[in-house]
């Protein structure tokens, strides 16, 4: 029995002197020490960014080459990194392993949970100095500031239209390429944006997530049905006030 337990014991003879952590090999200790020394011996020859490990540099190089070796077998979408593919697969499986302990909401990615927690803690909010509006992510504040300044730094080379964010330009380019990467698994309809697919799916599920707090009527679509309903209520209220 003692021999069996000994065979399962992992020997970690290499110990880090600054923090006391032990690892199995001298090579692993050398890589670990770069955390303390902040040494990054693997630089990218194209952009100058440096990395601790050669493997991290190889993954980074795909951002320059455009290589996406990790493909989703369900929808065919490809990704640069394997963890990104794993996170994407949860969209198909509807798995949401990261749960907020304060409100119970479940999310697909750990990063999303981290951002969500700021809603409760109000920690690290990015606040607009002009109007006081706050955002969970720095990117949200950046987009907001662009709308205030009117700055649209991303320009379509085909038609000349300018937009505020790189993501908006990417969506716009699908008009020219006619790319529609989001297929409906039930009827085969293909749409450009994920948000459009989510809206389309309500035609199958019958879900009506937008509810009028004044009359209780529910709507499937926010942009057309719910907003039009609110405008109708405002016109009725204005008419009543006049009479």
From TrEMBL:
Q: What are the GO MF terms of this UniProt record? A: zinc ion binding
One Pfam family name from the record?
Answer: zf-C2H2
Where does the chain cross the membrane?
none
For this protein, the record's InterPro entries field holds: Znf_C2H2-type, Znf_C2H2_sf, Znf_C2H2_type
Location of this chain's protein in the cell: Nucleus
Residues in C2H2-type domain copies: 14-41, 42-69, 70-97, 98-125, 126-153, 154-181, 182-209
The UniProt keywords, alphabetically, are:
Metal-binding, Nucleus, Repeat, Zinc, Zinc-finger
Quote the cellular component terms of the Gene Ontology held in the record.
nucleus
Q: Which PANTHER family match?
A: C2H2-TYPE DOMAIN-CONTAINING PROTEIN (PTHR23234:SF8), ZNF44 PROTEIN (PTHR23234)
UniProt protein name: Gastrula zinc finger protein XlCGF8.2DB-like
């Amino acid at each position: 029995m003692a021999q069996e337990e000994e065979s399962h014991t992992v020997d970690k003879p290499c110990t880090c002197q600054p923090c006391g952590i032990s690892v199995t090999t001298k090579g692993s200790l050398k890589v670990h020490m770069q955390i303390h020394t902040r040494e990054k011996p693997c630089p990218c020859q194209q952009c100058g960014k440096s990395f601790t490990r050669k493997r991290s540099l190889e993954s980074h190089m795909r951002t320059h080459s455009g290589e996406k070796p990790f493909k989703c077998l369900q929808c065919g979408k490809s990704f640069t990194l394997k963890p990104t593919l794993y996170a994407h697969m949860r969209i198909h499986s509807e798995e949401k392993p990261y749960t907020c302990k304060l409100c119970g909401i479940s999310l697909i990615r750990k990063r999303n949970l981290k951002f969500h927690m700021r809603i409760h803690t109000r920690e690290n909010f990015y606040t607009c100095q002009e109007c006081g509006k706050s955002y969970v992510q720095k990117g949200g504040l950046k987009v907001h500031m662009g709308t205030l300044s009117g700055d649209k730094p991303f320009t379509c080379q085909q038609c000349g239209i300018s937009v505020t964010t790189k993501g908006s330009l990417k969506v716009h380019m699908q008009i020219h390429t006619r790319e529609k990467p989001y297929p409906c698994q039930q009827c085969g309809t293909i749409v450009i944006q994920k948000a459009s697919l989510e809206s389309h799916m309500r035609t199958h599920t019958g879900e009506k997530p937008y509810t009028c707090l004044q009359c209780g009527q529910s709507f499937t679509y926010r942009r057309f049905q719910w907003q039009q309903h609110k405008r109708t209520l405002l016109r009725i209220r204005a008419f009543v006030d006049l009479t």
